[in-house]
Amino acid sequence: MLLIPKKFRYLQTHYRNAYKLRYIIMAKVCDITGKRPRVGNNVSHANNKTKRRFYPNLHKKTFYVPEEDAWITLKVCSKALKTINKKGITAVLKEAQDKGMIVIR
């Protein structure tokens, strides 16, 4: 049984299977850097402004951690991917854990 927060109960009638509902509720936050959507404006030629959201460029990636001998799946932005390529997954995971971004068991 999937527990659905009250503010999303109205979606239950539109999405009958919980698999689809899970992706609606999922946060768009990078697991490594903590980047999240920001709010800004669309600005027309006539200088009319309407609110919009700027989303981070997130990718769901699977990484192999040799120290743990395990595969982990993370939602990471493009900047985090570059950092992982430069420093290595182990060092990046340690830094993210020190910052409190992720919890490694």
From TrEMBL:
InterPro entries per the UniProt record, alphabetical: Ribosomal_bL28, Ribosomal_bL28/bL31-like_sf, Ribosomal_bL28_bact-type, Ribosomal_bL28_sf
HAMAP family per UniProt: Ribosomal_bL28
Gene designation: rpmB
Family note: Belongs to the bacterial ribosomal protein bL28 family.
Alphabetized NCBIfam families for the sequence: L28
Keywords: Ribonucleoprotein, Ribosomal protein
GO BP terms: translation
The protein's name in its UniProt record: Large ribosomal subunit protein bL28
GO molecular function: structural constituent of ribosome
Organism of this sequence: Algoriphagus ornithinivorans
Gene Ontology CC annotations of this record: ribonucleoprotein complex; ribosome
Pfam families the UniProt entry points to: Ribosomal_L28
Top-level lineage group: Bacteria
